Amino acid sequence: GRKLILGGVEIEHDKGLLGHSDADVLTHAIMDAMLSALSLRDIGYHFSDKDPAYKDANSMKLLEKVLVMISDKGYKVQSVSAVIMAEKPKLLKHIPIITENLANALNLSIDKVGIGATTLEGLGFVGREEGICVSASSVMVNIDE
Known about the structure:
By secondary structure, the protein is of the alpha+beta class. 32% of the residues lie in helices and 23% in strands. The protein is built from 5 helices and 5 strands; from the N terminus they run E-E-H-H-H-E-H-E-H-E. Helix 1 runs parallel beside helix 3 (59-72).
């Protein structure tokens, strides 16, 4: 009964992801990559799943807060990259929309947001369609340089 949301985009699928917030695993991974690049811990530290304020939270709103934290530390995002690992749904047609949505949210040009997708060929919990994984990285630059 949950929606599947990736990069702030609702993806039509019969399964959604469980989570305290909207469970947007892609946006979560990108936020964690940005925060950890600046030694700012992770989203669980800043937006605890024990805090009712974040119940069903929109991850794109949390991303806005993370961008403020990054700016407050004197940095900005130069680029992000992420690979979504999922058996289903097939994401090829959704990647351009997800990329554009994230680029807008991050105030980056589309060519600075690399989003890819792959399957795990039936291996593990991802292969059994029990979940989705994302690996993400980010490049941060000092605002003053």
